Amino acid sequence: MKYVIVVTGLIAAALAATYARYDSLDPCVWLVRDATHQSDLPELAVEARVRAGFLVRGITKPGPYDCLSDWWRLRSENPPPAR
């Protein structure tokens, strides 16, 4: 029972930290925000570029898995700069 409480607490902490950083739990928002931060382009231009990338691959309505995999790829290829 103690493990369930610990795991639940860790999940809650991870969700809170993610929401605090991105103001959203939607991976598509994470993808656009991190790509905007890395490219120094306006957020609207980056969002259009992300959507165009999905369209080129034939994904008209990207789901959470699509955005999460692209976000993970973006983060692994271009780690965030040290603060």
Task: Name the helicity range.
Answer: over 70%
- Chain-averaged pLDDT: 91
The number of distinct structural domains comes to 1
User: Beta-sheet strand percentage?
Assistant: under 5%
Distance separating the two termini: 39 Å
What overall form do the CA principal axes indicate?
A: globular
Explain how this protein is built.
The protein is mainly alpha-helical. It has one domain (24-83). 75% of the residues lie in helices and 0% in strands. The protein is built from four helices and no strands. It has helices spanning 2-22, 27-39, 43-56, 64-77. The longest helix has 21 residues, at 2-22. It is globular. The model has no long low-confidence stretch (mean pLDDT 91).
Protein topology:
Blueprint: H1 2-22, H2 27-39, H3 43-56, H4 64-77
Helix pairs in contact: 2-3, 2-4
In short:
By secondary structure, the protein is mostly helical. It has one domain (24-83).
Keywords for this entry:
single chain; 83 residues; mainly alpha; 4 helices; globular
